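Please decode residue identities from the backbone states below.
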């Protein structure tokens, strides 16, 4: 069974590190410290570590199920396991999740731009600019998107140097006493940390575009570890700068840190911080948009460009209807619940189902009949 597309469309397995890490970091980095403290409080950094370790298990399960898919992606696996009609219906459900994923990312970033920089610009204009930019990159194909992921991981990483400024005012006794909470508190914070790692599920779609994909799993684990360490660093710096009470009343604590940075030649460094975040969310949007296009193309039998533009139009219609901070909070909560179910519910069930079929079919999956 061919689990890889033609070689001229694939990328080296090494780039899986940047593609996967790029899709796991996004707008949630701006406000996650204020959310994960609602449980383990100052010990919430442990919950990030726990969630990060669990992601490695999810990575293993994704590779396990995809190695038994005829064409190496979730679309073909759905048809193998559940037949044409039910399989396509499940794929369209994943497409709906993709729309939710992109809508949350863009609308949350537009809210930051609207509050921080462009107070007089209507959100629909900013949404249109972001969507058109993303569509332009997606039309170049997966290899172009991989290049975007590479640079959008490397360039924003230079901003880590700016953490030196808030660390000068850090109060490391904010972490004391250490490990004083119960299991329920750590579990609650770990649950709130799950949205930070969303994006890994799109590996279910672009797996066939990775060269030697069966041997690429190590780079996926490197990406997951990279993401975990990045969130750990940001969380520790934020916890050292803010106390618990301040964090509970701060909307974007990571962004607030940029306001203390001052240079004689550059007064509003926080503006650069806000605009730099577009490079951070761009890989997530492009990969998800590309994945949504693939699902629509293979289930609805549309050509790539019409499927891409149809997805873009649907996203624009959805996003412009989302108004107000409360609506955005509900959207974040819906994505968090959906992502948790997908990562820790649906993917493990697929792995169990594939294992059962292997057991009774002696290692081979029963292919779904397209005439079902």
């Amino acid at each position: 069974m061919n689990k890889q597309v033609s070689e001229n469309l694939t990328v080296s397995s090494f780039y899986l590190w940047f593609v996967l890490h790029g899709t796991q970091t996004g707008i949630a980095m701006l406000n996650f410290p204020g959310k994960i403290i609602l449980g383990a409080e100052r010990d919430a950094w442990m919950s990030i570590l726990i969630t990060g370790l669990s992601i490695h298990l999810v990575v293993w399960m994704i590779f396990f199920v995809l190695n038994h898919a005829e064409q190496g992606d979730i679309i073909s696996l759905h048809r193998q396991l559940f037949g044409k009609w039910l399989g396509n219906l499940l794929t369209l459900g994943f497409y709906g999740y993709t729309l939710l994923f992109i809508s949350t990312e863009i609308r949350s970033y537009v809210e930051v731009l609207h509050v921080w920089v462009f107070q007089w610009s209507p959100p629909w204009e900013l949404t249109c600019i972001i969507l058109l930019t993303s569509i332009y990159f997606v039309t170049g194909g997966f290899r172009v998107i991989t290049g975007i992921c590479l640079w959008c991981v490397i360039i924003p990483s230079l901003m880590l140097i700016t953490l030196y400024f808030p660390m000068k005012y850090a109060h490391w006794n904010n972490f004391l006493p250490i490990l004083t909470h119960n299991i329920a508190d750590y579990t609650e914070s770990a649950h709130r940390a799950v949205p930070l790692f969303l994006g890994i599920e799109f590996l279910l779609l672009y797996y066939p575009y990775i060269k030697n994909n069966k041997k690429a799993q190590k780079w996926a684990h490197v990406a997951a570890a990279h993401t975990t360490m990045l969130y750990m660093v940001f969380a520790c710096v934020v916890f050292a700068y803010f106390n618990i009470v301040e964090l509970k009343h701060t909307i974007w604590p990571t962004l607030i840190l940029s306001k203390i940075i001052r240079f004689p030649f550059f007064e509003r460094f926080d503006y650069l911080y806000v605009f730099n975040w577009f490079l951070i969310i761009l890989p997530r949007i492009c990969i998800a948009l590309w994945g949504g296009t693939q699902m629509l193309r293979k289930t609805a039998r549309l050509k790539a460009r019409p499927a891409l533009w149809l997805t873009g139009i649907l996203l624009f219609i959805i996003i412009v209807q989302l108004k107000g901070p409360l609506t955005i909070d509900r959207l974040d909560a819906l994505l968090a619940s959906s992502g948790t179910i997908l990562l820790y519910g649906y993917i493990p069930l697929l792995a169990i189902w594939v294992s059962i079929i292997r057991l009774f079919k002696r290692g081979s999956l029963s292919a779904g009949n397209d005439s079902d």
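Observation: The domain at 7-360 is CATH 1.20.1740.10 (Amino acid/polyamine transporter I).
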